[in-house]
Write a structure and sequence with these properties.
By secondary structure, the chain is α+β, with helices and mostly antiparallel strands. 33% of the residues lie in helices and 12% in strands. The protein has a domain at 74-226: Transposase IS200-like (Alpha-Beta Plaits, 2-Layer Sandwich). The protein has helices at 11-30, 90-103, 130-152, 171-182, 185-188, 223-226; strands spanning 74-79, 105-106, 109-116, 120-127, 164-167. Strand 3 and strand 4 (120-127) form a beta hairpin.
Length: 231
């Protein structure tokens, strides 16, 4: 048996073989699914809505709030987490009224009417503009969180979501919103437990002007709220 003869390999052939191997290796590597970081991708960024803990449906969208003139009142709804407890109880109602009293006229926000339900709070407010509304509601939120946590002997988050706001542009819209806020207890309480007449957990007791100095609300300035009527 004759031994195998090894043919000499030229340097140019070595270079071409190395290039061929490198190209084959890169081709296999490029076929892999590489992770992607940064850039625009599906599902990226802050979610526009999120579920309410303990509530049905999506939350308040993370969109820029609409601009509005100071002559238009605003209906605001604030929802609390289930762990905060029943808001219409004596201790929590008193805590909410004290918080409203401290924040009733701050940063251009004026709290005119309110009603407290089992897990949420309705407000009719006046504001100098979107910035005043945002700053005033932030000041109120801080006081509400401290007062409710103290009353419930708990700590941590209080609000289920951002506050919801709806600008009221006509006299009829304001009158309907005022009636809705002050009579909202009829939508949530059974007839056998609902209070007869007016709601003691609302600002109905402060409808008559002039208001006492310790009222948790202030008198309206806008024409729409001063002439909305109630009944």
């Amino acid at each position: 048996m004759q031994p195998r003869r090894c043919l000499p390999v030229l340097p140019s052939e070595l270079a071409s073989r190395a290039e061929l191997c490198y190209s084959s290796f890169m081709a296999r590597q490029l076929q892999l699914s590489l992770p992607q970081w940064g850039g625009k991708r599906k599902g990226a960024g802050r979610p526009r809505t999120r579920p309410h803990p303990g509530l049905m449906g999506p939350g308040v969208p993370h969109l820029r709030r609409a601009d509005f003139p100071s002559r238009h009142p605003v209906h605001v709804t604030v929802r609390m987490l289930p762990g905060v407890g029943f808001l219409r109880g004596y201790s929590k109602l008193r805590a909410i009224q004290n918080a409203l009293r401290e924040a009733r006229e701050r940063f251009g926000l004026r709290i005119i009417h309110f009603s407290v339900q089992g897990n949420h709070l309705h407000l009719l407010v006046e504001a100098d503009g979107p910035e005043s509304l945002a700053r005033g509601m932030q000041a109120l939120a801080v006081r509400l969180a401290r007062a409710l946590n103290r009353a419930a002997r708990r700590s941590g988050k209080v609000f289920a979501d951002r506050y919801h706001s709806h600008v009221l542009g006509t006299r009829r819209e304001v009158a309907n919103a005022l009636r809705y806020v002050l009579q909202n207890f009829r939508r949530h309480l059974r007839e056998d437990v609902a209070p007869a007449g007016v709601d003691p957990c609302s600002s109905t007791a402060w409808l008559v002007l002039p208001l006492p100095a310790d009222a948790p609300v202030v008198a309206p300035r806008t024409w729409l709220l001063r002439h909305a009527g109630y009944g």
